[in-house]
Amino acid sequence: MSQLGVVGAGTMGTGVSQLFAEAGLEVVLVDSQRRALDAGREQIRTSLQTAHLVRGGGAKPLDVDAVLGRIRFTTELKDLSGAEYVVENITEDWEAKRRLYPELDDVCPPDTVFGVNTSAIAISRIGSVTRRPEKVVGTHFMNPAHLKPTVEVIRGFRTSEDTLQRTGELLERAGRRHIVVNDAAGFVTNRVAMLTVNEAIFLVHEGVADVRSIDRLFKECFGHPMGPLATADLIGLDTVLYSLEVIYADLNDSKYRPCPLLRRMVEAGLHGRKTGRGFHTYESATREDKAHV
Predict the structure, then answer these.
(1) Residues near 107 by beta carbon (within 8 Å), at least 6 away in sequence
(2) Burial of residue 1 (number of CB atoms within 10 Å: 0-12, 13-18, 19+)
(3) Domains in the chain, please, with CATH?
């Protein structure tokens, strides 16, 4: 594979771009907003500069300029015309995805595979709005994508075995393991994780415990590296809400109804780390988390 396309320069898109650029692939990162691309470039630069500290184990500093030099930042979808594989990472919104995929169909070669990095939207549904449903597959990267070792790969109703094989080979080239699951609302990871996060938010909403206590219990009793509310902040509370709404609508199961507190926080612009405040407050000078609920 000579060129990989990535659509969406948010947290996930920049992480995916960094992952594959580090693996030696030429990456075309597309976003409709130039400011998002500029912010993504700086996010990748900072991540590369500190990668050896984060990864530990005697990891050597990366050649920042060389890795960034393999990423082309552009606002034009037509620049994906040479991509052999495209990973899509735009907002968790069906209407936005429904509009995007026919455009990708027109721009990309017929053999290009579309990897959908979605938290909950059905892969089969996305495949249905393309002319290549057999080449549409779920590639659910975890955050941060350039550090997490395993990817959840989702087989849509019409995803071909060849597409699954190409996806596995691509991930292996980037040093990532993968686990294949069948298409369902929320797949495996988010069907469980979103339920846990939502229930933790209900506990705050009902006054059962405060934010810091809930996160400490999961870290200190279960050994989780991060509590469910800090995890929600990392994912983005807006993404958590969208994911719950998708799963709720698909399964029609009341246990996935979003907590009113979550909805109010999203409406108030408290989206977690990316806005500086969610269930915790994030100060760029110290990066210390401070509970505000």
Answers:
(1) 77, 78, 80, 81
(2) middle
(3) 3-182 (3.40.50.720), 190-291 (1.10.1040.10)
- Beta-strand pair 26-30/3-7: parallel
pTM, to two decimals: 0.89
CA torsion 237-242-243-245 (nearest 10°) is 120
**Torsion of Cα atoms, 10 then 12 then 13 then 18, to 10°:** 120
Q: Specify whether the CB–CB gap between 198 and 228 falls below 8 A.
A: no
CA distances from 246 to 13, 83, 94, 263 (A): 21, 30, 9, 14
User: Tens of pLDDT along 209-262?
Assistant: 999 999 999 999 999 999 999 999 999 999 999 999 999 999 999 999 999 999
Is 287 buried (19+), middle (13-18) or exposed (0-12) by CB count in 10 A?
exposed
d(CA 13, CA 9): 5
At how many degrees (to 10) do helices 189-205 and 228-235 cross?
Answer: 110
Distance CA 223, CA 217 (A): 9
